[in-house]
Structure formats: structure tokens, C-alpha cells
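Revision sheet: C-alpha cells.
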Amino acid sequence: MYLGLDIGTSAVKAVLVDDAQSVVATTETALAISRPQPGFSEQNPEDWWQATLASIDALKVQKPAELAAVRGIGLSGQMHGAVLLDREGAVLRPAILWNDGRSFLECRELEERFPALHQVAGNLAFPGFTAPKLLWVRKHEPEIFERTAKVLLPKAYVGYRLTGEMVDEMSDASGTLWLDVGARDWSDEALAATHLTRAHMPRLVEGSAAAGRITADLAARWGMQTPPVLAGGAGDNAAGAIGLGAINAGDAFVSLGTSGVLWATTDRYAPNPESSVHAFCHAIPATWHQMGVILSAASALGWWSGVAKTSPADLLAPLGDAPAAPSRATFLPYLSGERTPHNDTAIRASFVGLDHDTARENLTQAVLEGVAFAFKDCLDALAAAGTHLSQADVIGGGSRSRFWTAVLASVLGLPINRIEDGERGGAFGAARLARMAATGEAPADICLPPRRIETIAPDPALQHAYAERHAFYRALYPAMKGVTS
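Predicted:
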């Protein structure tokens, strides 16, 4: 048995997987986000830990014998968050999260201090990344910065609580801007640009390698005679790729989670930061990936659900299985700013084109299309970086909607594959990494693709209409930037 844990933004999810790679049980414990100021986003790391304990404790209630048989544990998690620890390993302040925009000024400072950043780290300096956050803390909370002995990412903090060791892996470390992504090692120059050294960083391993073993006390709590191995794990998107078997060059998927990702696996380090495409390490050795990222995907539908005071399922039900035409309205999904291709923390969302006949169904469809148009921006950015896709799987909570998948297919002009268990995501991939760390099995033998239950092809009649609407959508960005910045 293997246990995968996903330390997400909205919840900690746990999944038990057996030797046949069947999911035996799952649990989930909700998390809350604090927004102390506009553009700020924080969580208390202790909340992750308590949610982790609660999720595994719930598995013990459901499947005590199976949990006791766990040989390996893997972690996936939200990326980029800054967990600051003192010399005793105590948390110094709430973690600054991936969707926090406060460090936009520090991004420019970092690029000026380290001109080679783009090529070494493979990315622009985005406010959501970890390194600019530390410059912000140094400037605005100098006493906290001086007391900082270690900087961990969210899942690495949970790993520390599980094992007592501070370890992370390549895919998550790629999102800090401190990693030399091509060399798969910390960059002394990038660290120095934020007044840090390797001593502030955790030890690095590959995601499929062993990072340690959980403590004897925790093993006893969960009825485990031998403390399981903890794998290096993966950032949430890389863990999703492991779960999908997206480990070979050309494999691609669209993730409709809280944020959105258009992923392409590569067999080499291929940075092109000018297009705001991310170039990161994968969670297995000698493999990398490119991805475009949008900051609001399924969370845009969640926001609209809250405004409409109607569940997402009830909002989607009247739309049917596929669109007949684009919505009467256009939605820009910039609720938290945008990353690819704009790198803009100040831009905000809007509806455009409303009239007296605009109905709730029109606005719901516009939200889905707006997210799809943002993914089209990512697809164009990947093309500018030299990566061309022929098809993609779809995962995440939004993948339950056939209508949304059909919109994506026609907007992107790609066949989109709906897959079995499309929501299993990062926790399942983490369980696969746990197995590889515990057994030494090869990724090609473990990371098998799921069964595709349906392939939705682009609708030729809609493609032209959506291309025109996407051009209109793109033209709205500069106009809205002047209003919202």
C-alpha cells in the first residue's frame, strides 16, 4: 500500500493506493485562506499539518489494516509558498502563498540584482514565486528576515513535520527562482541576490527518490510497524503529470483546478521566459516541462457560483453537453491578476457585452469561455516557445463538465481527452512517487496513463467563431489594464 498526500490551497487530500494502482480510500480536510490586505494571500502552516493529521486519521478509521500496510508516502502540494522557520524550526509568520501579489516591485529588483536569472531559473520573476517574497519580507519585516534560518515550500514543511528532516525536490524547487533548473541544483548566485545562501535551503532529492522515513511516533499513531519511506514528491502540477503518466516528451494536459495549467512534458531544459512560459524540472530524473499558468480557472466558476448564490452543478446543468454558439457576453477571468502571458498582478476580472437580454446562463457560459480563452493565450505562448501540441488530457474539478471540455476543444483547436478519475490529481501522483521511492521501480513501469473515456474534437463551426471572440478578448486586456491597474 502507498499513501499520497496533496497539500492544496483549499484542502489536504489523502489517497490510499494498492499494488494494483487501485484507489482504496480517500479523505479530504478543508483549509481556509487569509487575505489581510488586497492582493495578499496567506495560510498558517500549522493548519496544513493539522489537516494532514486529520486526513490520515480518517483513513485509519476507514481502512486501518490497509493504512498499517503502507510502505511509502508521497507529497504533492501547492507551489511557491514561503514558509519561514527559525533555528529551532518554528514558523515565524504565516506562509505567503502562490497567488499573493505583494512582491511585484521586488520582482524588478531581483532581475536587476541577478541579470542571468531568466536563463538560470528558466522563468520571469513573478510575484507568486518564492524568491521575491523574501525580498519583500526583508524590506517590510526585517526582524523576521533576520531570524529566518530555513525557507521551505508548503509540502516540504509537511514533510519536515512527518520526518524531522528538511528536504525538497526538483519540480517544486523550480518554482522558487533559486534553482538552476538545467543543472537541477540550487544556484548560489540566485540565492545571493535575495541575501540568502544554501544554508537557508532544504536538501534536494529527485521526486521519486527517498527523502527520509516518518517518525516512529507517527508510525505508531497510524498502526504502522515499520515507518514508511517518504518520497521527495512533487509540486502539484508535476504530481498531476505523474498521475496521468505524462512523463514522455510531447505528453500534455489541461488542469482545471483552482488555478489553471497547460502542461507539456519535455526531454530537455527549454526556457523561453519572454513568453511568460514556465520551464521547470519534472518530478522524475532527466525530465523537464513547460507550462502556461492562469491564476483563476475552476475558482472563477466558484466565484460566480458564490455571486449567483447557486451551486456550480446547478449553474452548469442548463448548458447541456456542448455549446451551440459563443456566449452573448465575454468574461476576463483575472480575479487574482494573471500570469501567462501578461505577468500582471494588478489586472482584474470583468464582464463585457451585457444587455437587457443577458441571462444567468449567458454569464455562466462566458465564465467558462473566459477561462478557455486564457488557456488559448497559454497555448499561443507555448507555440512561441517552440512547443506545439496535438492533443491534451483534461484533469481537475472542472473536468467533470463535458460542456466546459467541449468549449476548451473548440477554443484551443485540439482534441481534449476526458479520462477516468480525472479528479484524482496530485495525491494519486504522489502515491506513485511513494511507490518508486519505496521499491526502486522505474517511472515507465509505474506511471501508466489512465483510461480515456471520451475524446472531444473541436467543432469546426465553432472554431472560427471562437477565434474571433478570442481576438476580441485579447483586445480587451490593454483597455482593462488602464482601468484596473
